[in-house]
Amino acid sequence: MKRIGAVATLGLVLLLAACSNSSAPPVETITPSADSSPETTPTPEAERGSRDNPLSVGEQRKLTEDSMWSVGAAAASQVGAGYIALPIHVKLDWDAAKAQGMPEGEGVDPNIALWIEYVSASGRSFSTDDVGILDVPDPLYQVGTVYPPLAELSANYIVTLPDAEIAGGVWKVANSKGDAVFIAAQ
C-alpha cells in the first residue's frame, strides 16, 4: 500500500510540474576558459638540419658532434632550366679528423667524402654532379684534395633534374656513414 501511495504522489507532482506556467531557465552556451580546455601536447619541433626542419641559407652545422665536416649553404640555390646548384660552404675540423684516425698531414677530397643529393618535394633524390655540361662557376669537383691548415671553402654542387622536381626540395649532405644535414634550397 505504501508503494501505491508513493507512485500516486510522484504522478501528481509530475502532473502539476507539467501544468506550471513558469518556463524552464534559458539554455546558456558555456564558453570554456583557457584553463578548462583539454591539454594538448605540443608537437615537438624537428631537429634543426633534418628534412622536416632544414638549415636555412646562411646557417651551418656539423654532420655529427665529432665530425670534421660543418656544412651549409652560402647563398640560395641557383636554379636554371633542368638543374639546381648548391652554393655549399664547408668548414673543416682537422683535429676531429685526427681524432677519428686520419693520419697527420693527410688530405681529403670533399667531393668524394661528402655525398650530396637534392631531395625533391615528391621524395625523389638526384645526385649527379653534372657540372661539365653547365656554365656554373667553382664546381665542387674541381676543388680536389684539401690539406691542413685549410679551414673552410665554398664551391657549387650542380644536379640536373626535371624542372617539375625543383620546387620545394631540400639538399642532403651526408658522410660515408650516412650522417646527414638537410639544407633548404631557398
Give a verbal description of the structure:
This protein is an alpha+beta fold and 186 residues long. It has a domain at 60-184: Immunoglobulin-like (Sandwich), CATH 2.60.40. The chain has three helices and nine strands; from the N terminus they run H-E-E-E-E-H-H-E-E-E-E-E. The protein has helices at 2-18, 94-99, 110-113, and strands spanning 60-62, 69-73, 78-80, 83-92, 115-119, 125-126, 152-160, 170-174, 180-184. Strands 1, 2, 3, 4 and 7 form a five-stranded antiparallel β-sheet that branches. Strands 6-5-8-9 form a four-stranded antiparallel β-sheet. A hairpin with a 2-residue loop joins strand 3 and strand 4. Residues 23-56 are annotated as: Disordered. Residues 23-43 have a biased composition (Polar residues). Keywords: Signal. Residues 1-24 form the signal peptide. This is DUF4352 domain-containing protein.
Report mean pLDDT, rounded to a whole number. Answer: 82
The count of β-strands is 9
CATH topology of the domain at 60-184: Immunoglobulin-like
Q: Give the CA-CA distance, first to last residue.
A: 88 Å
Number of helices: 3
Shape: globular
Low-confidence stretches: 6-33
Estimate the helix proportion, in percent: 10-25%
Rg result: 33 Å
H/E topology pattern: HEEEEHHEEEEE
Question: Helices and strands: which structural class?
Answer: alpha+beta
Estimated share of beta-strand residues: 25-35%
Biased composition (Polar residues): 23-43
Keywords: Signal
Region (Disordered): 23-56
Signal peptide: 1-24
List the helices and strands and how they pair.
Elements: H1 2-18, E1 60-62, E2 69-73, E3 78-80, E4 83-92, H2 94-99, H3 110-113, E5 115-119, E6 125-126, E7 152-160, E8 170-174, E9 180-184
Antiparallel strand pairs: 1-2, 2-4, 3-4, 4-7, 5-6, 5-8, 8-9
